[in-house]
Specification:
Blueprint (H helix, E strand, L loop, with lengths): L1 E9 L6 E4 L1 H11 L4 E6 L5 E6 L3 H14 L15 H10 L2 E7 L2 E2 L6 E6 L7 E9 L1
Antiparallel strand pairs: 1-8, 2-7, 3-5, 3-8, 4-7, 5-6
Bound molecules: zinc ion.
């Protein structure tokens, strides 16, 4: 079994933003040499999300608007007494900070409308990390 680990970084430009990182993840899968297995895509952050969905401008706004309504800023959270980002922590907790996708024939086996997305919830940040672990044969 092979294990291939790589990390890359993205910068974000807004408080909340969807950043598509599919190409970066796919190039790591290609470099891994793994033909069949899984890819773990993980963000070592408590206020950013990793997920997969359609890269369409209207939908990306819909995603951010839904997250804003589910996790509104400044809604009386205790954490905001020391750090003004409790809503971002809650979004990370409920939506997720990792993704597992199959690798088939040397490629991410993703749906046509599944692009890998980092969702920033507490930006802008100069350096958000994404760790990819490719496991398989
Ligand atoms: Zn915080």
């Amino acid at each position: 079994m092979k294990v291939h680990v790589e990390e890359f970084h993205v910068s974000t430009k807004a408080r909340e933003e969807v950043v598509v990182v599919t190409d970066k993840v796919e190039s790591i899968v290609a470099r891994s040499g793994v033909r069949n297995g899984i890819a773990l895509i993980y963000v070592p952050h408590a206020t950013a999300i990793i997920t997969a969905n359609e890269n369409e401008p209207g939908l990306k706004e819909d995603i951010l608007n839904k997250l804003r309504s589910l996790f509104p800023r400044g809604a009386g959270y205790r954490h905001d007494e020391i750090d003004d980002n409790a809503n971002a922590h809650l979004a990370n907790l409920f939506v997720g900070f990792h993704l597992v996708m199959p690798v088939v024939d040397g490629r991410l086996r993703r749906g046509t409308w599944q692009e890998v997305m980092l969702v920033e919830m507490d930006g802008p940040r100069s350096r958000r990390s994404v760790i990819v672990v490719v496991l398989g044969e």
